[in-house]
């Protein structure tokens, strides 16, 4: 950015300096008379207070105009430099401009691409021992020994240094949408069952799974929805949403996890069930083929809209496993046990099992066989168990 002020900036600065000098001199020469509404200058010229206030306001306006003009000019130059920094390079729009160095013109690279060592580049090499003498000689090779003046037994080995990069670009930031688009394994599933005749029914199941796994953590979003109508009467309408985060602790197998669960069911005596849990986990296996992790934690749950609408403290014991059987088959299973801290006979149990089979000649389309069991020991008038089993088409993206 050019730091030399232009004509407009110099003109504003000169006006500012003149105004400050005039105001200081006028303040030293003005005499205020107590209990009077006029001011008397040494020349005995009186001004009305209102006219004096107008003059002060006018000069203050000129001062602020000069200051704002200078700031706008500086900000404009900075904005131009920032736009050039961000959008000046068409190859990498987010990288700062990099000075290109032609090593051929500097004589640092020969025709073969290696760095030649000349007498000028070697220069006067000091002899070992600190005697103050120097050593000269013919041009050495990459690992040649340069004889010194200390004797034939002393030598200086010149090793070639790696060439500096002709162009280097570094980023210290990441766009949010870049984080959202990279590293994710996503899938959407859909299943449909219908009949018409003596009994008319339509059953639908859909869901989605978004998972981001790195060497340090795993973040997963899982959603499922079930809906069934029989002879025009709604007999099933429920869904759930789970958010799970698991963070490894250093280089150990231990991890810290957090879990958020939402469940709604029109045929249950609550509007929404909410559970928040956290704790520690241990990874017995964590690789591309096998994953087994056990968890223990604590938290609380609440059934909003139920007769017992209050927070209930609960523990959490869980295990999750995933096994890649073959290149086309994967098996997944999980079990979560939520007992009441005050009474372990009051508990919830959620078990899931799924088998994914990759269809032939397709990398994204799979067949999924799944079953889910949700058990509540205190159903409050409803059945304690909800068992779901389905066959779905799974599409990965």
Please describe what this structure looks like.
The protein is α+β, with helices and mostly antiparallel strands and 397 residues long. The protein has two domains: 7-87; 185-396, monomeric porin ompg (Porin). Helix content is 19%, strand content 45%. It has helices at residues 7-29, 49-87, 103-106, 119-122, 176-181; strands at 31-32, 39-40, 46-47, 125-126, 134-135, 145-148, 151-157, 184-195, 201-213, 217-230, 233-248, 254-265, 272-286, 290-304, 312-324, 329-339, 347-358, 365-376, 385-396. The strands form four sheets. The protein has a twelve-stranded antiparallel β-barrel with strand order 8-9-10-11-12-13-14-15-16-17-18-19. A hairpin with a 6-residue loop joins strand 17 (347-358) and strand 18. The longest helix is centred in the first third of the chain and has 39 residues, at 49-87. The chain is extended and about 95 Å long. The model is unreliable at 28-47, 81-96 and 117-154 (pLDDT under 50).
